[in-house]
């Protein structure tokens, strides 16, 4: 299995997950044209996508999903709550998914995981192939026991480290937005990302990607300061960016 990002941050998110002939896109926060250009960096085209999986309805994750799916006849999978919040989607094939209900997409086993975030029915995903387990975990404001349990034994992990608490407090956001981002239903700060890493089996991790890093309220150096000791034994640690995402990470 391998995974890559077309972009990671508040201006747009999209992650590719690939195993054999199965290639799925998790979220699409970019226009059709921008998505096509970013896919081309990985020698991929929308017609090669098996499905689009949606985590929640916020624009930086959903904006491009329906237009892309409609143009290329790609099936879309999301929770019923996300579908309701997203509104009507004519000529798009939507399958409802739910926490604790695993499904198969092509040759991948996909496990939706409910997370605390200020959306209608948000989920994140764990992917399994015969020899690898990949977790994608962004857009949550706190770490539940359920989340720790579901992400405990990953070989690869894309983990949110959205903001540094000091930078957020002193940054340009208006107070209501600061409160939302830093709240229990917002986004993980660097310390929370470190706490999650301390609670799971990092000895199994082969690749860790820190993503959804705020351009205004965080910096990769701040993330390193928080997680460095916990990731010292991880063979590959990558910091995703908004513009370029990150290249293919191969798990096996």
Q: How does this structure look, described?
A:
The chain is of the alpha/beta class and 252 residues long. It has two domains: 1-102, Ribonuclease Z/Hydroxyacylglutathione hydrolase-like (Metallo-beta-lactamase, Chain A, 4-Layer Sandwich); 140-239, no CATH class. Helices cover 28% and strands 28% of the residues. It has helices spanning 32-40, 59-62, 65-72, 80-86, 145-150, 165-170, 175-182, 190-199, 220-231, and strands at 2-7, 14-19, 22-26, 51-53, 76-79, 94-97, 103-105, 108-114, 123-129, 132-137, 156-160, 207-211, 236-239, 246-250. The strands form two sheets. Strands 6-5-4-3-2-1-14 form a seven-stranded mixed β-sheet. Helix 8 packs parallel to helix 9. The radius of gyration is 17 Å and the shape is globular. The chain starts with a strand and ends with a strand.
Looking at how many chains there are and whether they match, the oligomeric state comes to single chain
SS strand fraction: 25-35%
CATH architecture of the largest domain: 4-Layer Sandwich
- Please provide the count of β strands: 14
Quote the average pLDDT. Answer: 96
Q: How far is it from the N-terminal to the C-terminal residue, by CA?
A: 5 Å
Instruction: Round the Cα radius of gyration to an integer and report it.
Output: 17 Å
What would CATH call the homologous superfamily of the largest domain? Ribonuclease Z/Hydroxyacylglutathione hydrolase-like
Note the run of SSEs as H and E.
EEEHEHHEHEEEEEHEHHHEHEE
Strand order of the largest sheet: 6-5-4-3-2-1-14
Shape, principal axes of CA atoms = globular
User: Helicity range of the residues?
Assistant: 25-40%
Residue windows where pLDDT falls under 50 for at least 5 positions? none
